[in-house]
Amino acid sequence: FSFPWQTTFQDGGEEVEDGAVYNVTLKKVQIQQAANKGARWLGGEGDQLPPEHTVRQYETSKIRAIKAGTLEKLVENLLTAFGDADFSYISIFLATYRAFASPRAVLELLLDRFGNLETSSHGEVANLNSLESEMVLRAEIASVLRAWLDHCSEDFREPPDYMCLLKLLDYLKNNMPNSDMESRVQNLLKQFQNQEVEAVDGFCSTSSSDLVDGEELEISNSEEFSSFQDHVVAEQLTYMDVMLFRRVVPYHCLGSIWSQRDKKENKNLAPTVRATITQFNAVTKCVISTILRTRELKIQQRAKIIEKWIHIAHECRILKNFSSLRAIISALQSNSIYRLKTTWMCVSKDILLMYEELSEIFSDHDNYLTSRELLMKEATSKFANLDSSEKENQKKSQKRLQLQKNKGVMQGTVPYLGTFLTDLIMLDTALQDYVEGGLINFEKRRREFEVIAQIKLLQSSCNSYCLTPDQKFIQWFRRQRHLTEEESYKLSREAEAAADTNILSPKSQKSMVKRISTLFLGTDVFTPPKEQPLKSTPVGGSSGESTDSASVSSCEFNHSETEDVCVTPVSSPEDPLKKSSVGSDKGYDSDKGSISSEKGSSKGSICDPGSGSDSGSIPARDSGSVPSGAPRVLPVYNRQSGGSCIIRVSMDGLHASVYKSILITNQDRIPDVTQRALLKHNLEPGAVEDYELVQVISEDKELVFPRDANVFYGMNSHVNFDFILRKKA
Q1: Which of the residues in the chain have pLDDT under 50?
Q2: CATH assignment at residue 78
Q3: Residue 2 has what DSSP assignment?
Q4: Which domain holds residue 650?
Q5: What is the pTM of this model?
Q6: Backbone phi, then psi, for 92, in 5-degree steps?
Q7: What is the SS3 string spanning 170-187?
Q8: N-terminal Ras-GEF domain: from which residue to which, for each copy (predicted)?
Q9: Of the candidates 486, 519, 552, which is a domain's last residue?
Q10: Is 177 exposed, middle or buried (0-12, 13-18, 19+ CB in 10 A)?
Q11: Edge to edge, what strands does the sheet with 434-435 contain?
């Protein structure tokens, strides 16, 4: 006999039960290939029959995966999932259930409904007269509880009462006395009771109380920074990022949870994600501060600091720290640094090329495909995969990488968390929470878990880092006084004004302008608005506002919902650095504000959903209706497909990157979309008549929709799907 195992899968349709819908898959496994004594006479070698005379045996099994159900059915499925061959169900449920239920609700169902052996109606053990049945049920519940404590013990951190832990402990004392599980829960309870409520990591503190002498720091800031070696700075930033990223609770990243962070009652929501964002902002503001704070710097000295930060960014790339790498690039592309055209002229060509290559990692082309592919490639590699089109940079990179390899310690990967937050918000926007019959849409949770699993994989990889804190650098980093947007802009103008009288001759200046313009210009050129003076309103930073309120901003994210404003590179018409699309591609709010110009008064208008737009006509679109369930084609931003799409709606008066993602279909008209936008922005949904919806066509052109227009057919699909909700005059 031989056993050439082969497995095929076949869709078995759906099974509907009271309170649940299951997807059924038939798994067909070839388990045996038989021969007989006449095999040789039929041309076989040994006892092997030729293919046309082979006798095959198959075994078919059924896999049931719950698609939607009531909370009670989903909890019951925790006990039956292994029997249905849905082996990943428990992991998916525990990682995502906080989107639709509380730990107490799940625990009460698990213990009171299914854990009570006298009243349990669990299908497999309906007849509880059997001791064997009781043992089976007890073992199933113990398995679920063990997984819960292993992977999500933070769910039970509920100071000061710890009701869930006490309830669990009471159950174990009655049903599993003196078990390892009981001891474990007792220890966990003591641990929680002896700990203070976790606060935001101290690394990210930017309180003015950390300052010693502001004037002294201002004078010595750049000199002290220059004393740190590039690789030391990168290692310390990586150390801080790793400590924070490993503590991220994955469910905090779920779109349904993270998108609620701007409500007043949720100011402490998702603290582990907020801590990561605060660190990101602290790095970005540190970069800006070191470049601008010391007024006495000469142009060449300021250029050297920019070069140093580019080298540090490169070291972060070698360490596979994409978070601080992105923060540094964002700072260098911020308005206050980007506009220092004379300073940038003194940055060496090789380093400018290195900067360009690092920036391209975060290109927004094809939904940030480059950074996504690179991130997952690095997640499974021992060391960074470096490549450079510039020979000198390639040699330096390989030399530094070899030093890392010689240490013999594998590296982990610290991601730019915003990529995952974007994807999860997109999924939350595009897929329904409930399906027909009011059942919880668990297919949505399976999709979300695909993203959560990537976060968990990267968190696990971070255990490979072997970094130790350098207290001197950490203390220096903590005591930096961050500049507000207004302060950084003012210092930037002063620095540039002083540089205007610099020694560059007209000929050399023209040459530098040409070189840098060629470097930064791409096929998709971002044309910045005209530079405007800042308003006097204080913004973030050290002015007293906590950086905890920072959120993922979305110049980089095509689909993210944001709470604050990202740094947008803005230059005046005479600036030599005309940024490509990479330049507008940011991460978290790194400067707590942006300089933007007012929209022009020229507006396009449409009179009827089907009559055409200001450009003459409306392109043909998919007119198919959208089913009542989840869309068959997942809606995306900037593309209409399957009769639906996602648009971004910001409020008039705020920066365009403070937006909410909204799913629309080809059935939605202005009042429907306006109401949803008001709800998303936490405004009174009944005030629909007081607002108008406008699509941004260009810097000086807008498309105003009539009151009952169909948004899907009326919008201009050839530009970004960016809208403004404006109060009517």
Answers
A1: 1-4, 37, 41, 119-128, 199-220, 389, 503-631
A2: 1.20.870.10
A3: B
A4: 644-727
A5: 0.68
A6: -65, -45
A7: HHHHHHCCCCHHHHHHHH
A8: 62-193
A9: 486
A10: exposed
A11: 6-17, 20-34, 55-69, 439-441, 434-435
